[in-house]
Amino acid sequence: MSNVFGAIDTAGSGLVVYRKWLDAVSDNIANINDVRPTSGPAFQARYVVAQADEFGRGAKVGGIALGKAEGRLTYQPDHPLADANGMVRLPDIELSDQMTQLILAQRGYQANLAVVDRVHDAYSQALTLGTR
Known about the structure:
two-stranded antiparallel ribbon; 2 helices; alpha+beta; two-stranded antiparallel sheet
């Protein structure tokens, strides 16, 4: 039975990591058009840093890495935050990259959830063996 609970623990830790990754990607996408003045930093993309847990039986979020604060300068002279040269600062985030990250995180989350479901079903079946 310890293998059953070990599998659930391992897949459960993966669910947490992938959920944090999904949260980071959705935050990045939500702020992809966040305009800032050139005098300040741009929105910094969030990237989840995953690592093995201390027991080596799963994963955990080791931290969050931030993207470049410089962002990219864009010419938008009509924007209220534009400087004297008409420039504003946007995040250095590519939507296509974020969509790829989103798909990877979704599939990882779904795979770990499928493991939890299968282990749960196997455990439930094992419990019914003694009742037949």
